[in-house]
Amino acid sequence: MTIQENNIPQRQSGDLLVNAEALRDFVRRLWTAAGSSATEAGLVADHLVMANLTGHDSHGVGMIPRYVRSLHDGVLKLNQHAVVVRDAGAVLTIDGACGLGQVVAYEAIDHGIERAKKIGICAVGLRNAHHIGRIGHWAEQCARQGLVSFHFVNVAGSAHVAPWGGSDGRFGTNPFCAAFPRQGKEPLVLDFATSGIAQGKARVAYNKGSHVPAGCLIDHQGEPTTDPRVMFEEPHGALRTFGQHKGHGLAMMCELFSGALTGGYTTHAETRITNNGVINCMLSVIIDPKAFDAEDTEAEAEAFIAWVKASPKSAGCDEIYAPGEPERLRHAQRRHSGIPIDTATWDEIERAATALGMPATEIASALAA
Ligand SMILES: NC(=O)c1ccc[n+]([C@@H]2O[C@H](COP(=O)([O-])OP(=O)(O)OC[C@H]3O[C@@H](n4cnc5c(N)ncnc54)[C@H](O)[C@@H]3O)[C@@H](O)[C@H]2O)c1
C-alpha cells in the first residue's frame, strides 16, 4: 500500500470492466451457493447489477461483502418473504423478517400495487427488511404498472449522518424517491440519499483511494474533510446532509415515516447498529393517477417537462435532464461497454464468494466474458 501526497492510501490501480450478463450470472450463483432459492438469487442479482448499470455502484455488487458479513452475523436471513401483519384496506403493514431486501421489498411493493389498482391508493409500511438497495428500483416497479409513487426510507440504527448544526452522526443516509409514469415514455424517477453523498459512495472512494466532493463529510471534531477514511477508520467522522437544513429536515421525516409510523424502529442510543446488518424500513405511497378527477394528466405533465427542458442551457451544460434520465443514459452505456469495478472492491467480492464456498473457477468466470 502506498501513501499519496494527500495521505490517502492507494490500494489499487484501475478498474475491471465486467459484462453485465456475466456479472448477473455470477451474483445469481453466489447467492445460490449461500443457500438462496433460485427466485431469491435471481431477484438479488437483477437488483444489484441494475444498480451498477444505472451508475449507482454504491448500491451494486459492491454491497455483497457486507451482505455476506451480515449473513454470518445472523442478521440477514435467507429465503424470507414479506408478511402482511396488518391489512387496513388502503394501509398495509408488512414485515420483512430481515430477509434480503431485494425479495421482501419486491413482494411488499407488489402487494401495494395490487391494492392501489383496486382502490386508487395504498400506503405500504415495510419494516425490518434487510438492505433494500437502490430505491428507484421500487419506484420503477410501480411506474411499470402506470402508478405514481413516493418512498421514504430509513437505515434503522445507522448513525452516520450529522444533523444540521450537529457534529456527530445521528441518523442514516435516509433516501427519498418519487416516480411519475408516462404513457409510451420512460418515467421520471427522482431517487437520492438525504446525505450529500450515499455512504456507499464514500466506500467506493475509500476503496479507490480517492477523495469525496467538498462539503460531504466532517471529521471526528466536526471539521469539514474530503477524506473518506473518516467513515471507515477510527476516529470516526460523519456524512453531512444535502441542502443544509432542507436535507436535514427531509432525513428526519424519512426516519419518522419509515421507522416510527410503520412499527419498525428509528435510530437512537438503544437501536444503534453494532454488527454488519443493514436494516431498512420504508413507507411507500402508491397512487393510481386514474383515481383523480383530472382531464389530461398526461398532457399537463408533458407540457411542463418540455417547458423545463427548453430552458436556454447555461455555460458548460449540454442537456437539461429530467430525474431518471442520467441513469438511463448510464445504463445504455454500461450495457454496451461493461460495468467498471475497482480491483479493491472485486477482491472483497472474491473473498466473500470464497467464504460461501464458491469454487475459484466459478468466481473467475465473471471476469472471463
Ligand atoms: N437502501 C438504502 O439504505 C439507501 C441509502 C441511501 C441511498 N440509497 C440509494 O443510493 C442511490 C444513490 O443516491 P445518491 O444520493 O448518490 O444519488 P445522486 O446524488 O446520484 O442523485 C440521483 C438523482 O438525481 C438525478 N440526477 C442526477 N444528475 C442529474 C442531472 N444532471 N439533472 C437532473 N437530474 C439529475 C437522478 O436522475 C436521480 O434521480 C439511490 O439509488 C438511493 O436510493 C439507498
Q: Main attributes?
A:
single chain; alpha+beta; seven-stranded mixed beta sheet; four-stranded mixed beta sheet; about 40% helix; binds nicotinamide-adenine-dinucleotide; oxidoreductase activity; oxidoreductase
What is the strand and helix layout of this fold?
Layout: E1 2-3, E2 9-10, E3 15-18, H1 20-34, H2 38-53, H3 64-72, E4 83-87, E5 91-95, H4 101-119, E6 121-130, H5 136-143, E7 148-156, E8 161-162, E9 176-182, E10 185-192, H6 199-208, E11 217-218, E12 224-225, E13 238-240, H7 245-260, E14 279-287, H8 297-309, H9 325-337, E15 339-342, H10 343-355, H11 360-368
Parallel strand pairs: 5-6, 8-13
Antiparallel strand pairs: 1-2, 3-15, 4-5, 6-14, 7-9, 7-14, 9-10, 11-12, 11-13
This protein binds nicotinamide-adenine-dinucleotide.
Rounded radius of gyration (Å): 20 Å
Q: Label the CATH architecture.
A: 2-Layer Sandwich
Summarize the biggest pleated sheet. Answer: 7 strands, mixed
Question: What quaternary form is this?
Answer: single chain
Integer tally of domains: 1
Total count of helical runs of at least 4 residues: 11
Q: Quick check: average pLDDT?
A: 94
Named once each, the bound ligands are: nicotinamide-adenine-dinucleotide
The spatial strand order of the largest sheet comes to 4-5-6-14-7-9-10
Order of helices and strands: EEEHHHEEHEHEEEEHEEEHEHHEHH
What is the count of β-strands?
Answer: 15
Helix content: 25-40%
Strand content: 15-25%
Question: Which structural class should the secondary elements be placed in?
Answer: alpha+beta
Terminal CA distance reads 29 Å
